[in-house]
Amino acid sequence: MSHQIPFRANLDDFLLNLARGDLLDAVGAHYASDARLYENDILVARDKRTVLRKLQPVLRRFAMVRGTFDELTCDRATGRVRFFCRIDGVDIDGRVVREEVFHAQVWSDGKVAEERQYRGDALARLFARNVAAPRRRGPLLVPSLPASASAVMAARPLGA
Question: How many other CB atoms are found less than 10 A from the CB of residue 11?
């Protein structure tokens, strides 16, 4: 049981970092050094350093971001975590951008060892197979997160 407490505490901290818009802190603190990142089943990063480098253009593109979590599932025995994150942002040109991303993670030794992100057509295919379709829409209510963070990510400048 003792290994489960750090896992959940680390997961909660990861989600809080995302809720605050602290993408670099979320990855920096909670990805294993050899973590792999897949986007729509294509390997895009073989280690944490590459993931952090991949985030740089995103951080430069957006002036502000906020989002909503849905459908968190967490299996402590296997370290598998799944959740949706709907992201609303404002880019540096003032355009409003919205994106839905499904995250499937595998945690090991308190760190994200693998993350698969699905968006766009790949997300629609998962919905069609009913693999990732949410049962409901609305804010995720996670008792261990502060109410303001569990419902909506705080709108704030990225990287600030």
Answer: 23
Answer yes or no: CATH 3.10.450.50 is held by domain 4-151: yes
Report pLDDT digits (tens) over 17-43: 887 778 889 999 999 999 999 999 999
60/57 Cα distance (integer angstroms): 5
Give the Cα separation of 121 and 119 in Å (integer). 6
- Which pLDDT score, from 0 to 100, does residue 133 have? 56
Packing angle, helices 23-30 and 48-61, rounded to 10: 170
CA-based R_g, the chain, Å = 15
d(C-alpha 54, C-alpha 56), whole Å:
6
Query: Domain segments of the chain: what residues?
Result: 4-151
Helix (H, G, I), strand (E, B) or coil at 38: strand
Interatomic CA distance for residues 135 and 17, integer angstroms:
25
pLDDT digits (tens, 9 = 90+) for 143-153: 333 333 333 33
